[in-house]
Amino acid sequence: MKKLLVPVDFSKYSEYALEVAATLAKQNNSEIIVLHMMGLSEAILTKDEAQEATEAQFYMRLAEKRFNTFLDKPYLKGIKVSEMVQNYKIFSEINTVVNENDVDLIVMGSHGSSGLEEVFVGSNTEKVVRTSDVPVLVIKHKAKDFNVKEVVFACDFKMENIGVYHKAMKLFKLLGSNVRLVYVNLPDETFKSTSQIEEHVSEFLFKAESGDLSVMDKVVYLNDYSVESALFKYSDKIGADIIALPTHGRRGIAHFFSGSITERIANHSELPVLTFKI
What is the dihedral of CA 226, 193, 191, 274, to 10 degrees? Predict the structure, then answer.
């Protein structure tokens, strides 16, 4: 985890994300790239070339000036911080920055006064998560002494999730986290009996762990009417520090993470939410 990307709109929510990124950077000797997406209006972009260039330069200078104040934080001392200003209009374009700069993790605030205010509303959630090739950590509140000791990792234990499972376990090991693997059993067409669930999970872990089933002891089975309710209640019960979720790419969210469930979890969770692309 050598490079962290923090998209900012200079709001307090961006500051929350930046402070968490700083904590992670110090723990892992990482550098931080701070990205501001100007999103210049079509009206500006369709003006004549000379006027467009002048106004674009003005907004660029304004953003760079705001960076001077925004990045003047004591918690950034000793960390290599790079700043970027891009004229992106949609959050899916963040992935371009990720790939060009070998970013390992995106840390972002979930609400803000401008650019980030709808990142986890409607389709924008999946635009970020679906197109990001790296995990996305969503920060909702100011996190004092951010530390990922207890993780609730919700999974449907389908074979297609093995790659995400390995990626997640590697990251949590790096963070020194204790991981609770959670399967949520819903009263619908996906409902399974106890024996069916255990067989399903053991097959997954047998392959994922190369035959070592000792991790089975860390799997928690929850019965509830919704995934959100199950995860929130269990996370509160054990004092979890973070909720982690696998996500699909172009097909949306996998299995019981279909539709808007991940969006609702990201919106309503008081805890940070970490997503991993399948």
Answer: 50
